[in-house]
Amino acid sequence: MQTFLLPSRVIIGVLLLGVMVFAQVYFPVLPVPKDNPQTPEKIQLGRKLFYDTRLSADDSLSCSSCHQQQFAFSNAGNAVSTGIRGQKGSRNAPSLGNVAWRKSYFWEGGSPSLELQAMGPLTAHDEMAIEPRVLVAKLQAIPEYQKAFSRVFPEGITMLNVTKAIASFERTLVTNRSAYDKYRAGDEKAMSVAAVRGMELFFGESGDCFHCHNGFNFTTETLHNTGLKKTNPDLGLARITNRPEDAGKFKTPTLRNVALTAPYMHDGSIATLEKALEHYNKGGEDNPNVDMLMRPLGLSKTEINDLIEFLKALTDVEFTRDPRFSAPK
Amino acid sequence: MKKILVGTVFMVASVFGLSSAQNNMVKHDLKINLRVGNAPLELGKTYKTSAGAEYSVDLLKFYVSNVQLVKADGSSHSVPGLSLTSFENAATNSMAGKMLEGGQVYNAKTTQAQTMFSISAPAGDYKGVRFEIGVPKELNHRDASTVAMPLGLESGMFWAWNPGYIFFRIEGKTMVDGKTQPWLLHMGTDNWRLNINQFDLTTNKIKVLVDGKNSTTVQLDLEKIFAKGPNGAASWDLSQPALRVMHGGPNVGQAYLNLLGAWSLAQ
């Protein structure tokens, strides 16, 4: 009787496939709007637009300038974005990992869709600063874009179609191959012992992270004032509601790839994971609108280190190298 | 067809809203002069605020809606419709002066006597006009990706971070510590819709003759945008970042009051 020994590479491949399948199972179905279905051609067009500096007023910036793949599509260590002519914004560019599942966009959650969100950085004076009709005219003068848009959209190049294509590409930016995902899929060695201890703290009342950073994407999509400062120089949600009690409330970000997305908070004012955890361990600053969940945690140095190890286990290195997401050749 | 043609909606509404006065309906343009004090605004020219700060204006865009002609008895004739008027400096915008497609949109190379709204109304003598600078609430929160000009994404007035439109948008340059810096005021949200009232029921100082031949011209004095600063300050300080770049925010109330006082009827 002949014995078949499977090559180790095949076994590893099968295991990896199992992990990926599991990850996709525990992730909800990719949400795609009915009026903007995903097609390979549209995704490629969106990818090209995402990396094209001609989308800014002076041809100096693209979406990828502030959303860089090696940093999980965040802003390469910069606290705030730098727009055309060196203008500084006031907010930290968030990671685009799993952005398709976000319920709303911008730090105060004022935009309901990826398509509409894209209008913000494209047109903001201190970001890409381009007028919609100037952009449309600019793209219409580029034969390559004329062809690409006509293949994807019957009406050709319009502002809405620009944002639809970019949104389609952004929806493909799925990150689900971290050590945590593999651990959750059954690979008990995927995370270190310290990271497992950190995970237990994270999902327990003592660490108390899970009330806001929960679910497959580590966010409940809710807005909170985390007592970052004693006052609220950036109004956050109150910019929309005009209610004083909403001042300083911002959306809970995903923690996937958080070790790659420093600095932290809506204004990038906390430089490291260690300092972010110190902030939460302290219970934040005494802000009039601080969330009731903010309280001194009393975590030890070892516990903080364990939490950091767990947060590092949320890094998906493959996501940062995946050629499907990189700049088109 | 998914697109909601706002202009068409209003046209249909106006047709169904016609009374027996239909035969007497005439056209009457509501025009605007942009001023800086007593002088016509020149886009790109450097001016000074009362506090001595240099500034120029490169772009001004605003929505006009809820236009009403006020009658002698205090009632009014409402004119349906929404218009977007845009003034752009050709030196800073390659598309300046080009008409946008698909809506009641005007661009102007000059800043005087430009039509900002076309009125259709029964002929007669009116005691004035009132209108709003803004998008009506029922239109302000629709999905911007499904509406056509003058709303929609192409308008350049969709406020991506906020569900709604910029009602009034002015942008230009100023000098801070010897460096040229952008300044801008973007005003929107339902709380900050400007109600402009230019009518007089007690005297005969204001007369609006709607006869198909004349037009009514209002003036917007941009100098008055800087009339007062927030929190009791005597003037608007453009050197402060929070007052130089405003997308709504804590100081918008004073900007709103300043802007409200900047309108008048041209004599």
Label the overall shape of chain A.
Answer: globular
Described by the principal axes of the CA atoms, the overall outline of chain B is globular
Order of helices and strands of chain B: HEEEEEEEEEHEEEEEHEHE
Strand content of chain A: under 5%
Question: Helices and strands of chain A: which structural class?
Answer: mainly alpha
Our count of domains of chain B comes out at 1
Q: How do the strands of the widest beta sheet of chain A line up side by side?
A: 1-2
Q: Secondary-structure element order of chain A, as H and E?
A: HHHHHHHHHHEHEHHH
Estimate the mean pLDDT confidence of chain B: 86
Rounded mean pLDDT of chain A is 93
Largest sheet of chain B: 9 strands, mixed
Return Rg of chain A in Å.
21 Å
Low-confidence stretches of chain A: 15-19
Number of domains of chain A: 2
CATH level 4 superfamily of the largest domain in chain A: Cytochrome c-like domain
What does this structure look like?
The complex is a heterodimer of chains A (329) and B (267). Chain A is mainly alpha-helical and 329 residues long. Helix content of chain A is 37%, strand content 1%. Residues 15-19 of chain A have low confidence and may be disordered. Helix content of chain B is 10%, strand content 42%. Chain B contains four helices and 16 strands. In chain B, strands 3, 4, 5, 6, 9, 10, 11, 12 and 15 form a nine-stranded mixed sheet that branches. In chain B, strands 1, 2, 7, 14 and 16 form a five-stranded mixed sheet that branches. The model of chain B is unreliable at 1-21 (pLDDT under 50). Classes of the chains: A mainly alpha (329), B mainly beta (267). At the A-B interface, helix 4, helix 5, helix 6 and helix 8 of A face loops of B.
